[in-house]
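lol so apparently i was supposed to do this last week
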Amino acid sequence: MLRLDKFLSEAGVASRRQLRDIIRSGRVRVDGVAVTDYAFKFDETACRVTLDGEEISAGKQIVVMMNKLAGYITATEDPRKPTVMELLPEEYRKLQLKPIGRLDKETEGLLLFTNDGDLLHRIVSPRHAVEKVYYAEHEGVVTQDDIDQFAAGLRLRDGTECRPAKLESLELGKSLITVQEGKYHQVRRMMSARGMYVSYLKRIREGNLSLGDLEPGKVRRLSDEEIAMVVDRQNNE
Ligand code: URA
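anyway here it is w/ uracil bound
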């Protein structure tokens, strides 16, 4: 037997305090019956719990989107530098989430986390060409030759060959770059190979998922539909 607020908190739905309000408002049902007492005890192995009609199960696959701040490294722990795990709110920290892919310390924007090892592996694997879109502020002027070189597959200064990518100039010193791989410092190195030093970089889209209006430093849990979008995309490739 488990308390309803504990069950929902362990499933990563919201913090214990937020959950009390959610439960009081009658949005949670246990076997179809609305329960407004957060201390309600039930058999979590036999009952079906829903929030706004969506089934919640403990140990469920969770995917969280973060709008990463600059200054945090993408790692689960580090003895010296602050990690992205420190940006995760309390209720997510105990869920054993791991970052999917990585952003450099100074890069901001969309970073996904999951507790599902299979999903993590499928998304990180280079066999799956997930499109990633970055907004960059940089020195220099984008020329048609730069755009063509990106499209043809750029060669970096150290000889590394990149897959075809898209470079789109928004205005002087501001561009969108779309890549299908995640080599070390890839976008910064691609721009620098064309003489354009990047001073600000933010990932704004990954596959079908956009950062949208998620505020800097904040996280939100993806809905089942959004997770299906990520998984479907992987399976179709
Ligand atoms: N390219 C970079 O240079 N840095 C990132 O963090 C991501 C892509």
